[in-house]
Amino acid sequence: MSLGVRTEPLRRAPPLLVPGGPYSVAVLLRGYAEPQAVGGAVLADGSVTLVLPQTWGPASSRPGSPPAGDGAEAALEAAARGLILVDTGGPWAREALLAALAGQGVAPGDVALVVGTHGHSDHIGNLGLFPGAALLVSHDFCLPGGRYLPHGLSEGRPLRLGPGLEVWATPGHGGQRDVSVVVAGTALGTVAVVGDVFERDGDEDSWQVLSEDPVAQERSRKRVLSTADLVVPGHGAPFRVIREASQPETTSLENVIQKPRVQDEEPTLHR
Ligand SMILES: [Fe+2]
Predict the structure, then answer these.
(1) What pTM was computed for the model?
(2) Ligand 1 centre from 164 Cα, in Å?
(3) Per-run averaged pLDDT (10 residues), the chain, 271 residues
(4) What CATH superfamily classification does 6-264 receive?
(5) How far are the Cα atoms of 45, 67, 70, 202, 217 from residue 53, in angstroms, in the given order?
(6) Residue-range domain boundaries for the chain
(7) CA 217 / ligand 1 centre spacing (Å)
């Protein structure tokens, strides 16, 4: 691994909740990519992750809070007061996604914003489950009903959704319009949910052949590794980014990773 960092996968099976404030991160489904014995086929699906405001509860909020302004930034900030789903998996995982959401006390109608990291079928195959949510798929942002709003991602500016919560343009894998969601302030530091910017931990042998623009993706990867403490890749276990010079102590995972239902979560986070 470059940049003077090493990485370490979290092997605990999902769902995996990383509590945080003002946002927690729950990895609902772990993506995978399994080469098949013949024909070069790969059996794959993408990771699905939920970002939860600390104040969210099943009965406390639903999508639809009116934005303070009429631009994309205001609409995104309004959506980020509710639940944000990052990628949806493929359509074949529809029932698994519904079950994973239900396991956290979440109905599809509770999701306020769906972010699709890139336009591949194993990442955005269940958008139809969320007709009441705002959608940010690649660089297309629309409100329920199909009202598309311009924003600054294409100029490289991060989209701020809330305190410590941003969408970054991370081009490369699927083209120039891939995005990642970055959540600061969790018990494991800054979490980056990156789609296929990283296929998995230790993907140096394979990511370039899957990339539309390896030069851009290399930049995106370095940017992620320079900021994130935990990366949720598109097709593997979340992995920690460990900067040995600046992190002499390793936080005990057992002390910070929880597997409660969302409604049981206590916002008593120690960072
Ligand atoms: Fe992909």
Answers:
(1) 0.89
(2) 26
(3) 82 92 97 91 96 79 59 88 97 97 96 97 98 95 93 87 96 97 98 98 95 98 97 98 68 55 36 28
(4) Ribonuclease Z/Hydroxyacylglutathione hydrolase-like (3.60.15.10)
(5) 26, 17, 22, 31, 30
(6) 6-264
(7) 12
